[in-house]
Design a protein that fits this description.
Elements lengths: L1 H9 L2 H31 L3 H37 L3 H37 L3 H16 L1 H16 L4 H23 E2 L2 E2 L3 H25 L15 H33 L3 H17 L1 H19 L3 H37 L4 H14 L3 H16 L3 H25 L6 H24 L11 H17 L1
Length: about 475
């Protein structure tokens, strides 16, 4: 750990980014295999089943996003306390985060389960899609608590720079999911397959095993964080601290999730084929974002630890290098995707020529601007890790409410572009939000935040930030 801390706080920035980013990218690739495996096998059921999963995902993501601010706050504080050399604080933050995330997840899972039919009625999905979508959502909400717990485990381990153990856990669970998916979807022998619901059930089983493994590792305390049963007694001063820090994060992720739901309303108005094309295109977008997400998570850990160690200039250098890597890397991937777009779509849904053609158009319209996603993800990671969650929240609100949905609605409903207007909204949003993000980052005011000096400081910073940004 001493050698690792030296690298993170004073060694080569390129080496530090690669040491963190490569394992995180591998973890993200393996985690995306959950969705890719589901999409691959569900695609063999037909366009209606693909549409059922596509409609369900934004709703479940919204519920998860509402409670994710608490886990985000825990990851940020654990990184900064690790950089400041306060191991006791790292352990305390981890225990309180586990407690809060578990309680929040149970509450949100129950609410989501009960409201699932109303969500689908609001979306106005076709009768052919409704039943499968409802089953998928119900199982997904039952598993929300396990998704929360394991996501929290990964975030805390990443905050202290530990990526090997999460990589091992994800590898095992993905292999298990690869076996369970076709079994639960199509059945075997006397066991009757469950269709779309089987895909959600396979993920539920594997995510629950991953969550249990994470808690056991924390309790054993051999990998940088050690939890004791006495640590789970609620600390209301920390809960208040985490609320002020995490609330903007929850709003940010909820805004992004709500934006996806609003887009789903718009997409659904063009019929099942457009929904399926949107779903396949979104899956491909998630795949190509994996390197940028890994890079941004590495930025989050390094910026958090360096801010905790009192070195904001190094945090700025880390972010600028990552922004350059993200811009160039995703632009290159976008060029490759442009060439092979029809083949990428056909991998997910091979027997629907209309969906293949429409999905390829979606990819080709947006893929050449993917470099902008790399820029904004790295900048937002730096904002979050430094404690400036409000900046990330405002960027999310601007992206979804001011740019993407208005552009998508105007182009698709009030021009001859039709559903192509939705595809163009992604390209426009990528460019505008990337430029705004980087300009805001270059102002440098985010470097003035330090969370490890005083617990009351977070509430003060949050309140002052709201006033200051409102004035601007």
């Amino acid at each position: 750990m001493n050698a690792t801390n030296h690298l993170f706080l004073s060694g080569s920035i390129s080496k530090a980014l690669l040491k963190l980013a490569v394992p995180i990218i591998l973890i993200n690739i393996l985690q995306s295999a959950y969705q890719l495996t589901d999409a691959f096998w569900v695609g063999r059921l037909g366009a209606a089943q693909v549409a059922a999963v596509s409609v369900s995902m934004p709703v479940t993501f919204l519920v998860i996003a509402i409670g994710s601010g608490l886990a985000m706050a825990g990851a940020i504080l654990s990184a900064q306390y690790m950089g400041a050399g306060q191991q006791d604080k790292v352990n305390h933050v981890a225990a309180q985060t586990v407690l809060m995330v578990t309680v929040t997840a149970i509450f949100l899972g129950v609410i989501g389960y009960l409201l699932s039919p109303y969500f689908l009625h609001l979306l106005g999905v076709d009768d052919a899609v409704y039943n499968d979508a409802l089953k998928f959502m119900h199982v997904s909400f039952v598993g929300v608590v396990f998704v929360f717990i394991y996501a929290m485990f990964q975030a805390l381990m990443r905050g202290i720079g530990q990526t090997k153990v999460p990589l091992i856990i994800v590898s095992v669970t993905v292999l298990l999911n690869f076996v369970l998916d076709p079994l639960f979807i199509f059945g075997y022998g006397s066991f009757t397959g469950l269709g779309v619901m089987g895909a959600a059930l396979a993920t539920l089983v594997t995510q629950s095993l991953a969550a249990i493994a994470g808690i056991i590792i924390f309790l054993r305390g051999r990998h940088g964080i050690e939890l004791k049963l006495s640590s789970f007694i609620p600390d209301y001063s920390y809960i208040k601290q985490a609320f002020f820090l995490g609330a903007p994060g929850s709003v940010e992720l909820s805004a992004r999730a709500f934006g996806l739901i609003i887009m789903s309303f718009l997409v659904a108005s063009f019929g099942t084929q457009t929904i399926a094309s949107y779903g396949v295109g979104s899956n491909i977008l998630q795949m190509v974002m994996i390197p940028a997400m890994g890079l941004s998570m590495a930025v989050s850990t390094l910026v958090g630890q360096n801010m905790g160690a009192g070195n904001p200039q190094r945090a700025e250098q880390i972010t600028k290098l990552a922004v350059l890597w993200g811009l160039c890397g995703l632009s290159f991937i976008g060029a490759i995707a442009y060439i092979f777009a029809p083949y990428l779509v056909a991998f997910f849904i091979p027997d629907e020529q209309g969906v293949i053609a429409k999905g390829a158009q979606f990819i080709r319209i947006m893929c050449l601007t993917w470099g902008g996603i790399g820029v904004q993800l790295c900048v937002v990671a730096a904002f979050r890790a430094s404690g400036n969650m409000l900046n990330a929240m405002l960027l999310a609100l601007f992206s979804q409410c001011v740019v993407q949905f208005p552009v998508a609605y105007i182009l698709s409903k009030h021009t001859p572009l039709g559903d192509h207007g939705i595809w163009y909204s992604f390209a426009v949003t990528n460019v505008i939000v990337a430029a705004l993000s980087y300009l805001w980052f270059c102002r440098g005011r985010w470097q003035q935040t330090k969370l490890t000096t005083d617990d009351k400081y977070i509430a003060k910073v949050s309140q002052e930030a709201f006033i200051e940004e409102g004035a601007h």
